[in-house]
UniProtKB/TrEMBL annotation:
InterPro entries: Acid_Pase_AS, His_Pase_clade-2, His_PPase_superfam. It comes from Malassezia caprae. Residues 1-18 form the signal peptide. It comes from the Eukaryota. The lineage of its organism: Eukaryota, Fungi, Dikarya, Basidiomycota, Ustilaginomycotina. One of its GO terms (molecular function) is acid phosphatase activity. This is 3-phytase. Keywords: Hydrolase, Signal.
Length: 535
């Protein structure tokens, strides 16, 4: 069978899952209640060809990066031995601690001795995955163009790019890959060491939540194996929240907030930026490509092959075909996308993330959610499915939802206003540091002795970097990254109001509000809201 045809069949088979009705099951056989587990809605997925780096890795180097099965050694075009590009992959960066995100708090990584850890809320992104697009967009589109062009004899590559004449694009679609499984297992182990004792006195099994998307669901499974052990399913209840039209879900709020993804200012900005940082690469590549006139969009599809092939196949020849400066441009591309589509530059950013903020408030306050937004209240108003007395919570989600949620927490520390034409080298908002593969945010609730009394504090870590909480989060006094929990909660109430959830999510642009360009607070401003609005 022709390779393209066989891949297409694989795609057809694996995408034929259709939305099934929710199945609630007794996962462990020891539970006294049933949980939504087998809910369907895995999303479109396709397997890829299995890797074989023993044959495909052509680097003559014995360098081995500890802990990685995949290549982390390739150097950029014109780079020297010490140039690293693997931290420039934006949201496709392999997990690493965000060491330079908040250097000012590096001295405060360990908890003050006067404090005791009371509770932790972990928000986690899935690990490394295949591209979400199939063969009709993204890197797969370039793969298909080369395959078809080679077959019909119109495409020919020379020089450094001659390997394209034999390219057999075999990367799958949207599934968690082995590197991603490792990231999540490792994270589960690490979190066990960090927080395991919080669960020592639990009398009921903790509820761990995940969305139904295949890569997210599988990520939660690997994490729980790392955290709880091989019999994880007997030690917790995994609750799967459906990602589908008509379903409310705080970990994938796009269906509960229909306007949420309509104002994609990030996509507009990155298209501008691609014309700048991929201009030279386009000229360089075109010299060795015949029978195909490359566009800037093609170049963007091409540069993405490197991180995806590395994650899926363990090695990629594409990594060394771009300069360090181009990789830095690629990194900024991801920053524009997330800040503009989901963060402080999106008018719906806060509204999309506010549902999780309300859940956080419910969990730290032991209160049922009243004015619901994107929650599935059938689950969230039932303590079996949304317990309020757990000491460790873990929720598995996507990159965009994490950026929405950090915006709703009003973490203005990462609220940089970004320009489409030129990166600010000092920006804090970097997708590589905030939402790499396997990203995690930990909200730690501490009790700290202050004289005779003991009062609750909050501390937030983004990929291990302690956020320097400040007045933006309502903290009247802040030091060591700690903030009084009551100050912090007060500010979250303001954020709930400022999100204008109903208006932002269901209003009509032009009638209820007017938005034409990126915003700076992740919300509709008063000037943008029409006073006679109907929503
Ligand atoms: C779950 O399974 C166990 C063992 O089969 C059974 O004893 C228990 O009643 C079941 N619980 C429910 C809610 O079905
Ligand atoms: C591989 O590298 C070693 C030195 O590290 C060198 O001696 C050898 O010639 C290289 N082989 C090839 C095929 O380049
Ligand atoms: C490649 O060929 C397949 C099969 O003929 C076709 O479905 C697909 O659209 C083509 N893709 C491109 C990018 O030309
Ligand atoms: C050959 O394949 C390329 C890539 O899919 C396509 O753009 C082109 O039209 C095809 N040419 C012929 C003569 O079939
Ligand atoms: C190309 O990849 C497909 C799987 O996607 C595989 O079946 C086929 O053997 C590969 N062809 C070559 C020439 O390696
Ligand atoms: C667990 O309970 C025991 C006895 O009530 C108590 O001494 C201990 O501090 C508790 N452990 C934790 C981690 O809360
Ligand atoms: C709430 O969750 C349950 C369990 O998955 C599901 O059956 C129901 O359709 C959901 N409702 C909404 C509005 O999301
Ligand atoms: C590429 O562009 C050149 C100049 O505009 C044109 O002559 C040529 O036909 C184009 N080639 C393809 C394959 O579209
Ligand atoms: C939470 O509130 C319920 C009553 O609403 C109470 O029974 C329970 O003890 C409280 N839990 C904690 C940890 O305060
Ligand atoms: C719920 O909304 C109503 C009306 O906007 C408001 O008065 C009330 O304070 C809100 N309750 C909470 C707990 O936020
Ligand atoms: C889902 O969200 C909508 C819009 O906020 C709300 O009207 C509806 O009651 C919610 N459904 C459930 C089951 O929570
Ligand atoms: C909560 O869920 C449990 C288990 O499914 C069920 O028995 C109980 O009736 C529910 N409680 C409410 C208030 O809906």
């Amino acid at each position: 069978m022709l390779p393209v045809a066989s891949l297409l069949i694989a795609v057809l088979i694996s995408t034929s899952f259709c939305a099934e009705s929710t199945k609630w099951s007794n996962v462990t056989g020891t539970s006294n209640t049933v949980f939504p587990t087998d809910v369907g809605n895995l999303g479109d997925t396709a397997p890829g060809l299995a890797p074989m780096t023993a044959q495909d890795d052509t680097l003559n180097s014995t360098e081995f990066v500890k802990g990685y099965g995949i290549d982390m050694r390739s150097k950029p075009l014109g780079g020297n031995e010490s140039t690293d590009i693997y931290g420039n992959f934006g949201p496709y960066t392999t997990w690493r601690p965000a060491e330079s995100l908040f250097p000012e708090t590096n001295p405060y990584r360990s908890m003050p001795p006067s404090c005791q850890l009371r509770q932790v809320h972990i928000l986690h992104r899935h690990g490394a995955r295949y591209p979400t697009d199939g063969m009709d967009d993204g890197p797969g589109l370039f793969g298909a163009m080369v395959k078809n062009g080679t077959r019909n004899g119109t495409f020919h590559a020379t020089g450094d790019l001659a390997f394209l004449n034999h390219l057999n694009y075999t990367i799958g679609q949207a599934l968690l890959v082995h590197q991603g499984a490792q990231e999540l297992f490792d994270s589960g182990v690490k979190h066990y060491y960090e927080y395991g004792r919080l669960l020592s006195n639990m009398t009921t099994k903790p509820v761990i939540r995940t969305t139904s998307s295949s890569r997210v669901l599988d990520s939660s499974r690997y994490w729980t194996l790392g955290f709880f052990g091989w019999d994880a399913n007997e030690r917790m209840n995994l609750e799967v929240l459906t990602e589908a039209k008509g379903q409310n879900n705080t970990l994938e709020p796009k269906y509960a907030c229909p306007n949420g993804k309509k104002f994609a200012f990030g996509d507009q900005m990155r298209k501008e930026w691609q014309k700048v940082y991929l201009k030279d690469a386009l000229k360089r590549w075109q010299k060795n490509i015949h029978g195909l006139n490359l566009t800037i969009e093609d170049m963007f599809n091409i540069i993405q092959v490197c991180p995806y092939e590395t994650a899926g196949m363990g090695f990629s020849k594409f990594c060394s075909l771009f300069t360090k400066e181009e990789w830095e441009g690629f990194e900024y591309d991801g920053d524009l996308k997330f800040q503009g589509n989901s963060g402080f530059m999106s008018p719906m950013g806060r509204a999309m993330g506010i549902g999780y903020v309300q859940e956080f408030l419910a969990r730290v306050s032991n209160h049922t959610i009243t004015n619901a937004t994107s929650q599935n209240t059938t689950l969230d108003r039932n303590e079996t499915y949304f317990p309020l007395d757990q000491r460790l919570y873990a929720d598995f989600t996507h990159d965009s939802a994490i950026v929405n949620i950090l915006t709703a927490f009003n973490l203005t520390q990462i609220g940089d206003h970004l320009k489409a034409t030129k990166p600010n080298k000092n920006r804090r908002f970097r997708a590589s540091a905030i939402v790499p593969f396997g990203a995690r945010v930990a909200f730690e609730v501490l009790e700290c002795a202050k004289g005779e009394e003991s009062t609750p504090f909050i501390r937030i870590k983004i990929n291990d970097a302690v956020v320097p909480l400040n007045e933006g989060q309502g903290c009247r006094q802040s030091h060591d990254g700690l903030c009084s929990l009551s100050d912090f909660k007060k500010q979250l109430q303001d954020s709930i109001k400022a999100s204008h959830f109903d208006l932002a999510c269901f209003g009509k642009n032009g009638t209820d509000f007017s938005v034409t360009s990126p915003v700076s607070q992740g919300q509709l401003s008063n000037a943008q809201i029409h006073t006679n609005q109907t929503a």
